[in-house]
Structures are given as C-alpha cells and as structure tokens.
C-alpha cells in the first residue's frame, strides 16, 4: 500500500468511522472494460447486480454502456434508479415469484429468463401480444463448478433451471403463446470458477438442445452463459474474461448463435476494500488474535464460504509467522474475517483493510446484534465521497412502532 493510499484510508476512517466499504471508480470501470473489449460489444455484458447494488456503483457501470442482470423487484428498482433503460435490464434466471415475472411481461425489459414451472405459467398468463417479451429458458446442465458447494448452481441436484429433457416442451409452450418470444437458452454454472472447462461442457449441452429445438420452427438465437468467472483472492492475477469469451465465440462460429455473459464478482470484487479498526488483541499462547470492529454482519464471506481475503495493516506490512486470526466483535465464535495472517505487530486502534470485497460484501451485510450497516465511500479523482451513509440507530427500528 503506497503512502498516499494509506493517508487517504486513514482520512476516510477519521471522517467516516469504521467499518467502511471503500470502492474505486477507476478499478470497477477498468474491470468492466476488460469484459467489453473482449466481447467487442458492451451489449453482450450484463453486470450481475446481486454482487453490488450501491447506486453510485450502478451509475458508473451504466455509464460504460453495459446492461444489468437483476434477480428481484428490488434489484430492478435500483437498476432503474441508477439510470439503466429497460431494454438494458435482464430479469435473470434465479427463483422469482410469479408477481416479479408478471411485472416483467410487456414492460420493455431486454430479456426475461424463466427457470421454474410457476414462472412459465406466470409468463404465459401475463403475455401481451401488443408488447412482446423476449424470453430465455435456464437449463440445469448437471455440471459441478464453483468455489464452494453453496456456490455450485449448475449441478444435477441444484434448485435452478430445467432438466435438459424438459426444455423442448417448455419451449413449444412459450412459442405458442402470443406475446412471448423464446430466443435464449441460459445457464449459470456457479460462482468463483477458476477454469474455463465447465463452460465448454455447458456448451455441449446447449448446442445439443439448440439443435433439437431448430426443428420447432422457433430456433434458439442466443446463449446466456451467466456469470461465475472467479478472482484469485490470494493474488492479483485473475482468470481472463477474454479467454472465456473468445473460447465461446470459437465454439459458436458458423452456428449463427450469439452469446452474452453476466459477470458480477469479476467486475466488482477487486474494486472494493473493507476498512476496519482493531479493538483489542487477545493473546493465545504468545500468538495474538485481533478482534476488530468489522464482523460477519458486515462481511460474511469467511463465515459463509471460508473465503480467505488478503488482510493488510494500513500503516505497513508487519512481519511474523502467519498465525494471527482476525475476528469480528459479535457474540459468535464463528464471527471470523480471516485466519492465519502475518499481523503480529498490529496494535489496538490500528487500521486494517480486507481486500477484494467489492462483490458480495456490503450486499450480504445484516443488522444482526442490532449493528448498523457500514458506510460506503467511492474513491474518485484522488478523493472520496460518501455513497451510502453509515446506518444510524434510528434506522434500526424504521417501520416498527416505537410506543
Ligand atoms: C443467474 C446469475 N447470473 C450471474 C451471477 C453472477 O455470478 P458471479 O458474481 O460469480 O459472476 C449469478 C450469481 O449468483 C447468478 O445467479
């Protein structure tokens, strides 16, 4: 960490308190441009909003020309609020209530991906021939991929999508309904995938399905290959979106099929860090554990997935063996931010940063223990601005009768 970086982080901690999420506008735009350049067209890339829904983040992403994949009415509302026009919004293939699907019909959305029977029923019942809707069908290809079992979404026993064997009937039903235009087969294999091989296998499944559907008179036009490309949390070197996209393009050459992608983590992870202050050291047989003011309520990725993010001292890189655990302050022993770090010289009051938390960081924060959620700030042009105020105590009981 350079001197200027640490000065700025210390200034943010003083002005805004800790824990605070710090995003870099330059970094999130650079990561987006890597995808856009590899795809040759911003319209093939849809940021998965679930990774980070801060309005300032979404506005920046909107400015790059890419689209956005939303999973809920709330994510859709945020995308609209941030300025995404309806035709750049993709209602994604995750479990949705019938109401969310109905609201998506005839509303100008670029694509609505259906992934369960009740979603198909809702789309058929609300289809509006005067305002047709492009439809995708999510397939469960039976592939294991993802950094943790909870992040594998394409395997046979996953709750998402249709069995390949069921797709032809669903496709025919959609095609026979005025106001629905089935055009896309979709997969999302999982999250944190570090090899391209799972997409290759998914393409085998999708190409065979598309072949079969060609006879239906309503051919598949496009594959939505979801998100899932990982980042290496232990280094600065990531799997390259260009390798994924060019590999897919090669497989689709001559088929007339196009493809799109829904990256979340690989656009946002590197663009965020979590700033936290050490509350106290607890010595355990000569080895300290550091208890800091960020807990699993602020950053859940270690508790949920055992994810080990790099953790550094803002004031410098202390030496010593990698034996120091970094713990949160809440009332559970599972409240851990990371384990086995070289942070021996760190003292109470010192600042730490948890790296690469721009994706699935703040969006997974909770109010457990009645802890107000952290502030979020954006670094822009060498300075910072608050893009979400830290929650106040009053925020904690908003909507509850207080007398
Ligand atoms: C349908 C869909 N698309 C895209 C993504 C984004 O995945 P990632 O952040 O791993 O790129 C997800 C994540 O769960 C998803 O469910």
Concise description?
By secondary structure, this protein is an alpha/beta fold. Helices cover 29% and strands 21% of the residues. It has two domains: 3-21 and 269-389, Lyase, Ornithine Decarboxylase, Chain A, domain 1 (Beta Barrel); 92-263, Alpha-Beta Barrel (TIM Barrel), CATH 3.20.20.
Structure commentary:
The chain has 403 residues and is of the alpha/beta class. It has two domains: 3-21 and 269-389, Lyase, Ornithine Decarboxylase, Chain A, domain 1, CATH 2.40.37.10; 92-263, TIM Barrel (Alpha-Beta Barrel). Helix content is 29%, strand content 21%. It has twelve helices and 17 strands. Helix 2 (25-39) runs parallel beside helix 9 and helix 5 (98-104) runs parallel beside helix 6. The chain is elongated, with a radius of gyration of 23 Å. The protein starts with a helix and ends in a 7-residue tail after the last helix. It binds pyridoxal-5'-phosphate. Pyridoxal-5'-phosphate binds at residues 48, 50-51, 69, 92-94, 188, 191, 226-229, 262-266, 359.
What are the defining features of this structure?
403 residues; binds pyridoxal-5'-phosphate; nine-stranded mixed sheet; 29% helix; alpha/beta; Lyase, Ornithine Decarboxylase, Chain A, domain 1; TIM Barrel
């Amino acid at each position: 960490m350079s001197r200027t970086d640490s000065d700025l982080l210390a200034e943010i901690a003083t002005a805004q308190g800790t824990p605070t999420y710090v995003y870099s506008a330059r970094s999130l735009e650079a990561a987006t441009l890597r995808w856009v350049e590899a795809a040759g067209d911003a319209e093939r890339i849809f940021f998965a909003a679930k990774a980070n829904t801060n309005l300032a983040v979404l506005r920046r992403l909107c400015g790059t020309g890419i689209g956005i994949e939303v999973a809920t009415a709330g994510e859709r509302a945020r995308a609209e609020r941030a300025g995404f026009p309806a035709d750049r919004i993709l209602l994604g293939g995750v479990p949705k209530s019938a109401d969310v699907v109905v609201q998506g019909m005839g509303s100008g959305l670029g694509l609505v991906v259906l992934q369960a029977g009740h979603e198909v029923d809702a789309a058929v019942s609300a289809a509006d021939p005067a305002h047709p809707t492009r439809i995708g069908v999510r397939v469960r290809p039976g592939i294991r991929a993802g950094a943790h079992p909870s992040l594998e979404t394409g395997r046979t026993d996953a709750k998402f999508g249709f069995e390949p064997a069921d797709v032809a009937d669903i496709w025919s039903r959609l095609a026979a309904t005025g106001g629905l235009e089935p055009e896309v087969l979709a997969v999302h294999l999982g999250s944190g995938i570090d090899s391209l091989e799972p997409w290759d296998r998914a393409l085998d499944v999708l190409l065979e399905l598309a072949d079969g559907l060609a006879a239906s008179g309503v051919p598949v036009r496009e594959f939505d290959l979801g998100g899932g490309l990982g980042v290496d949390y232990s280094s600065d070197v990531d799997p390259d979106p260009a390798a994924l996209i060019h590999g897919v393009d090669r497989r689709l050459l001559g088929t007339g099929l196009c493809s799109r992608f829904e990256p979340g983590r690989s656009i946002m992870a590197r663009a965020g860090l979590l700033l936290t202050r050490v509350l106290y050291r607890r010595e355990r047989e000569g080895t300290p554990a550091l208890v800091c003011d960020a807990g699993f309520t602020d950053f859940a990725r270690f508790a949920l997935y055992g994810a080990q993010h790099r953790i550094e001292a803002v004031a410098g890189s202390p030496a010593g063996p990698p034996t120091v655990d970094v713990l949160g302050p809440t009332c559970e022993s599972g409240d851990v931010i990371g384990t086995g770090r070289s942070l021996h010289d760190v003292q109470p009051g010192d600042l730490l940063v948890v790296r690469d938390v721009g994706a699935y960081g703040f969006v997974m924060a909770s109010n457990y223990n009645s802890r107000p959620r952290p502030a979020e700030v954006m670094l822009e042009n060498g300075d910072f601005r608050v893009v979400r105020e830290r929650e106040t105590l009053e925020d904690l009981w908003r909507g509850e009768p207080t007398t």
